[in-house]
Specification:
Elements lengths: L3 E6 L3 H16 L3 E2 L8 E6 L4 H20 L4 E6 L6 H7 L5 E3 L4 H9 L20 E5 L1 E2 L10 H5 L3 E2 L2 H13 L4 E5 L16 H9 L6 E5 L8 H9 L6 E3 L7 H7 L5 H14 L4 E8 L6 H14 L3 E6 L17 H24 L5 E10 L2 E5 L5 E4 L9 E9 L4 E5 L6
Parallel strand pairs: 1-2, 1-3, 3-4, 4-5, 6-9, 9-10, 11-12, 12-13, 16-18
Antiparallel strand pairs: 7-8, 14-15, 14-17, 15-16, 17-18
The protein binds iron/sulfur cluster.
């Protein structure tokens, strides 16, 4: 009888991609998805520690599996991802019911574990890694990161940047398309640093070109870009290649040069401004999303106000805002975490309020326009999909639209999503 598995995932798109690959690899070994997590033979927790809240969730999940292990000692519990650092003895002592700890992206290690038959139990794809949306697939192109942002634990856990060879990426993308994907997102912690470690030093523009003409592939995205590494050559490729979506995920993190310096980001606010200018010049209508950390050690009211002014000036299509939390082992964790929690919460709220207004105004301009939507899946009584600029669109229609391109006229535009009605014939 087949063994069953379940994978619980938290964190970034890289973790989602790892979990999808892990699920595929386990199924290739003959494992089947378990109908309930507690009844799986192999339980995999793919963890994240980028924020304290994510680490707390992962720790809670691991603890909750103690009772599963007690009831069914044959259950195999594997913890992988960024929670697994250098101090394995401490993890083993803290979680004696866990059978194996595997480094981030160590899908091969998981397969080996499963193959040895130690494995036993698992099945809740929280965050929907595997086939949550078969239409839009993630393909990692680069693991790790060569930057040393002072607050970041990812680089400590995932190590230096390692690029995957282009033929391997093309093969992975081809497999995803053959399985029904119409959109591929190329993933890397710092995706625009791709290739510097490979013979001949290809770059991400070369990867875009290499997968561009795959039959059946309609859209290509990439994330996350680092402002110091996003080259004019890559911007030109986005402008030139019709399948590449005009959307950039470009974390600024703060709008004050001193804070950026203490974060170790390697660019100034003016550098960032000029980069956005080049993107908007070369790719008119491009959407730009960013990340902001509020309450970094020493961030004054004045410095925070500069971040707010920059958000007002640049008018991003999305801002992912997080309150700073020190991560053990990082350089910033040795600085005094001196912005009180209530100030961090207020700054975070201020960013969210500002962004709600700005993106409401940006999206409002789409009302009455027809946009191309790649339909991903049904959502309650509606279809859900995205524009090329990554705007979420819902519409009602009796036909099966999954995996098709719809022309949708926008009838209502809010800050977080758009509503519309479908206009002529589906493609695909
Ligand atoms: S660019 Fe900075 S924040 Fe992003 S993964 Fe690398 S070190 Fe971390």
């Amino acid at each position: 009888m087949s063994k069953s598995y379940t994978i619980w995932t938290i964190g970034c798109q890289m973790n989602l991609a790892d979990s999808r690959q892990a699920a595929e690899a386990l199924e290739a070994l003959g494992y089947i998805a378990a109908p309930a997590a507690e009844r799986a033979d192999l339980i995999v927790l793919n963890t994240c520690v980028v924020r304290q809240s994510a680490e707390d969730k992962a720790a809670g999940r691991i603890q909750s599996l103690k009772s599963v292990k007690r009831r069914r000692p044959s259950t195999s519990i594997v913890v992988m991802g960024c929670l697994v650092g250098d101090d394995l003895p401490a993890l083993r002592q803290r979680y004696p019911h866990v059978d194996a700890f595997l480094r981030p992206s160590d899908v091969a290690g998981l397969v080996e574990h499963a193959r040895r038959g130690i494995a036993e139990d698992l099945a809740c794809l929280e965050g929907a890694p595997r086939n949550a949306c078969p239409v839009a697939a993630y393909v990692p192109v680069m693991l790790g990161c060569d930057h040393h942002c002072t607050y970041c634990i990812v680089t400590l856990r995932r190590g230096p940047g390692r690029s995957l060879p282009i033929p391997q990426i093309v093969e992975e993308a081809g497999k995803a398309v053959a399985a029904g994907a119409r959109e591929i997102t190329l993933l890397g912690q710092n995706v625009d640093d791709y290739g510097h470690d490979l013979p001949g030093e290809p770059d991400l523009a070369d990867v875009l070109r290499a997968i561009h003409d795959l039959d059946g592939l309609w859209r290509i995205r990439f994330l996350t870009s680092h402002p110091a590494d996003l080259s004019d050559r890559l911007i030109a490729a986005v402008a030139e290649l019709p399948k590449v979506c005009p959307h950039f995920e470009l974390p600024i993190q703060a709008g004050d040069d001193l804070v950026l310096k203490r974060m170790g980001r390697g660019y100034t606010v003016d550098d960032y401004r000029r980069l956005v200018g080049r993107i908007r010049h070369s790719v008119p209508g491009a959407s730009i999303a960013t990340d902001v950390i509020v309450g970094f050690p020493g961030e004054s009211d004045e410095q925070f106000k500069r971040t707010m002014s920059l958000l007002e000036e640049i008018r991003f299509d999305a801002v992912h805002v997080a309150a700073y939390s020190p991560r053990p082992g990082t350089a910033a964790s040795r600085l005094a975490d001196d912005v009180p929690p209530e100030v961090k919460a207020a700054r975070r709220q201020a960013v969210e309020d500002l962004q709600e207004r700005i993106v409401g105004e940006i999206n409002g301009q789409l009302a009455g326009q027809a946009v191309e939507v790649l339909v991903e899946e049904p959502h309650k009584v509606r279809w859900k999909g995205r524009t090329r600029t990554n705007k979420l669109v819902f519409f009602e229609h009796p036909d099966d639209w999954q995996g098709k391109l719809a022309q949708v006229r926008i009838t209502w535009a809010g800050p977080w999503s758009l509503l519309g009605e479908v206009t002529p014939a589906p493609r695909g």
